Amino acid sequence: MSHDEKNNSIFKIALNLTMACFVSGLIISGVYFITADAAAQKAVDMKNAAMKALVQDADKFNPVEGKEGWFKAEKDGKTIAYIVPSESKGFGGPIHFLVAVTSDGKVLNYDIIKHNETPGLGDKGGQDPFKSQLIGKKAENLKVVKDPSDKENVQAMTGATISSKAVTNGIKEAVEAVAHFTGGK
Amino acid sequence: MKELWDIYKKGLIVENPIFVLALSLCPALAVTSSVIVSLTMGLTVLFVITANNVVVSLIRNLVNPKVRVPVYIVSIATIVTVAQLVLQAYLPDLYKALGIYLALVVVFAIILARAEVFASKNNLVRSFCDGLGMGTGFAIAMVIIGACREVIGNGTFLGFQIMPAAYDAPLMLILPAGAFILIGYLIGACKILVERIEKSKA
Q1: How many CB atoms lie within 10 A of CB B151?
Q2: What DSSP character marks residue B149?
Q3: A24–chain B Cβ distance below 8 A for any pair
């Protein structure tokens, strides 16, 4: 017992683990302190680059008043598209989008910012050929079907019906939100 | 030098983490649907396992044996988090590509296994070589699985179409079940290879 008390008392064991966690915390906070500014800067840069990629014609992006996260893509002072964040429930959790919608309510382009879809199946939702199906569509045609002869609507990706539906629904929501916004003006 | 080379070499084939030790099969199934993703994952693990082996080897005399496993996990988590923060700040594109996989590295069995089996009993240089060897073995195995799945299941290699356009890729191989069957065959092939190596030694 005496040996146990000397080296293996519960207090010592707990202290040992506490020390490990404390040191770990110190290291992480130190690194965070150094990198936080650079990370925030990069995040802004990446968002701007992402918006530029979505609406290539635009020369300026302005936030929309009263709508959190919305941006107007402007060209020569005229609004050509709205960039709207959207979210939907996918196969492996929420999928976050950035959707560019034209002023007359068509999908211009979209980008999946964050997702947990199956690699090789569901994650193709942000790539061609699935992506090109959605571009140019209006809200009423943003519906997933499995009938290959149906050219009006959206064909599901093989083996990833849930992801296909999630992507389509998320974009539909964004298109409807923009239609509501511009229609209400 | 010979000894260190032997420590490094055993992780490649004779004690390959996936094909022989059968540890960390989860990432081998989940993130090997294309070569590039497999390679990224393999290199990430190579980095984390080596760094963790070094850390564990350094602190091995300070850690109470009763809490060694939680301490090793804390060490792995710290390394991964630091890597995440640094990538986020300086290489956001790579950070975006790695996505959730980076956080998953924390729970890979192979990393904890090497800390427990090897690094906690060996000095720094030996542990470093072990981590490097095991990590390389892991990366090679990942790339082999990824290459088979991408070529057969998708008709592409590193994103380039290599099969004729008429090739109807079997979806099976892209799904995890197909990966499991493939890994079974690869383990069999590896077993034959290991037996050959041992025979030539004897």
Answers
A1: 16
A2: H
A3: yes
